[in-house]
């Protein structure tokens, strides 16, 4: 089964991109080869570009506080598991504290590392990190794996508060929805959204053996999905077959 997700707003879109980048960074940094660590650094710089926006940190803190207040309102509700509720509130408070105590922009401290910034300035240039462009970086890539990983850890740790906050917020959004079995007739699906339902994320779970991919479009009134044949050799076409899938709307 393959799970596809599509955001309803730009904030969730950014959260999903950050989640994707953080997952890639963790995988690459844990590997042994110099080429993996090169792309780990490239990913770290991408995270700095996205997470370092001043308004994003403010938005995340507001979301954490909003979620905390929402869960606090369930206190003393007999239908709610008090221990589970306390656990979520504690997680939200910890994420808020960790991010709010990060000075300035997320990853801003990395900008004070001249060596890192010299690498960052060349990574986006095709072939820009050749040995004659960055001899010190070339030498770093020849250091033992353990040394490179020790260098990577504090750089990654500078970005962890945002990772933890975004991961928690996305988990809470995903947990808010319940899956429903659907059929896309001749590969086409539409569902109207009740007014007053401010959804943030749509999730589609589909059997990969069907060989189709959902092309999704969402707005505050409508969710549409067009299932196309999976092809990398030519133009994708909508499947003429009915497609069974699971749909989850999260708010």
In short, what is this structure?
This protein is 49% helix and 18% strand. It has 8 helices and 7 strands, in the order E-H-H-H-H-H-H-H-H-E-E-E-E-E-E.
Helix content: 40-55%
Beta-strand content bin: 15-25%
User: The CATH topology of the largest domain, please?
Assistant: YacF-like
Strand order of the largest sheet: 1-4-7-2
Task: Name the assembly state.
Answer: single chain
Mean pLDDT over all positions:
95
C-alpha geometry: globular
The CA-CA distance between the termini, in Å, is 23 Å
Q: Kindly provide the name of the CATH class of the largest domain.
A: Mainly Alpha
CATH H-level superfamily title of the largest domain = YacF-like
Indicate how many domains the architecture comprises. Answer: 2
Biggest sheet details = 4 strands, antiparallel
Keyword list:
YacF-like, 251 residues, 2 domains, four-stranded antiparallel sheet, alpha+beta, three-stranded antiparallel sheet
Structural summary, described in words:
The chain has 251 residues and is of the alpha+beta class. The chain has two domains: 10-172, YacF-like; 176-250, YacF-like (Sandwich). The chain has eight helices and seven strands. It has helices spanning 10-30, 34-51, 54-72, 82-100, 114-123, 135-141, 145-157, 160-175, and strands spanning 2-7, 180-184, 188-192, 201-206, 212-218, 222-229, 243-250. The strands form two sheets. It has a four-stranded antiparallel sheet with strand order 1-4-7-2. A three-stranded antiparallel sheet has the order 3-6-5, with no helix packed on it. The two termini are 23 Å apart. The mean pLDDT is 95.
């Amino acid at each position: 089964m393959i799970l596809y997700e599509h955001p309803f707003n730009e904030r969730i879109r950014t959260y999903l991109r950050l989640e994707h980048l953080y997952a890639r960074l963790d995988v690459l940094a844990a590997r042994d080869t110099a080429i993996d660590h090169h792309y780990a650094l490239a990913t770290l710089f991408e995270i700095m570009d996205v997470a370092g926006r001043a308004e994003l940190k403010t938005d995340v803190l507001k979301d954490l506080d909003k979620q905390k207040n929402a869960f606090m309102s369930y206190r003393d509700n007999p239908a709610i598991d008090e221990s589970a509720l306390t656990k979520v509130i504690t997680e939200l408070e910890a994420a808020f504290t960790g991010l709010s105590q990060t000075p300035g922009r997320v990853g801003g401290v990395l900008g004070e590392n001249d060596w890192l910034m010299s690498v960052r300035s060349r990574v986006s240039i095709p072939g820009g990190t050749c040995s004659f462009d960055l001899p010190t970086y070339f030498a770093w890539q020849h250091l033992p794996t353990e040394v490179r990983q020790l260098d990577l850890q504090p750089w990654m740790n500078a970005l962890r508060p945002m990772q933890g906050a975004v991961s928690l917020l996305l988990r809470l959004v995903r947990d808010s929805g319940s899956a429903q079995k659907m059929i896309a007739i001749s590969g086409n699906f539409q569902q109207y959204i009740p007014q007053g339902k401010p959804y943030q994320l749509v999730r589609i779970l589909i059997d990969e053996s069907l060989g189709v991919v959902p092309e999704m479009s969402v707005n505050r009134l409508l969710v549409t999905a067009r299932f196309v044949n999976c092809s990398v050799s030519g133009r994708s076409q909508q499947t003429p077959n009915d497609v069974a899938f699971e749909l989850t709307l999260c708010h």
